[in-house]
Amino acid sequence: MTANLDIIRATYEGSSEENGKNLLAALAPDARWTEAAGFPYAGTYIGAEEILSNVFRRLATEWIDYRAQVHTYLADGDQVAAFGVYSGTYRKTSKSMRATFAHLYQLKDGKIIKMEQFVDSATVQKALVEP
């Protein structure tokens, strides 16, 4: 259980570059990554390339100073939950947001096989709307 918690912790607690490298190393080849309905990148993506293209590259290019800061982790066997707050400024509107989130991970043999996002998407959507 501690090893799984350490794997997930390593994807949040370093620099963006370190977190990204650690996430790529931890993803199973067929990992399923689900962004919540109402979130700008909603959908389920399979494998590192789909996850990077549809989520992380967009976060890096569409937002200024985007962060996912975790305040609490819970681990139970092969599942780890991370609870925290997203923040950032949407480039197109220059509007900032802070939204609570929960990420539920499932791991197998030290690899992430599934992640599901739960988020206050209404707060995020407000940042996307032009004044």
Going by CATH, the architecture would be Roll
**CATH topology-level name:** Nuclear Transport Factor 2, Chain: A
In one word, what is the shape?
globular
Helix percentage range:
25-40%
Overall description:
It is a single chain. By secondary structure, this protein is of the alpha+beta class. The chain has a single domain (2-128), classed as Nuclear Transport Factor 2, Chain: A. It is built from 4 helices and 6 strands; from the N terminus they run ααββαββββα. A 6-stranded mixed β-sheet has the order 2-1-6-5-4-3. A hairpin with a 7-residue loop joins β1 and β2. It is globular, with a radius of gyration of 14 Å. The mean pLDDT is 95.
Furnish the topology, listing elements before pairings.
Layout lengths: L1 H8 L6 H11 E9 L7 E4 L1 H15 E14 L2 E12 L4 E14 L2 E9 L1 H8 L3
Parallel strand pairs: 1-6
Antiparallel strand pairs: 1-2, 3-4, 4-5, 5-6
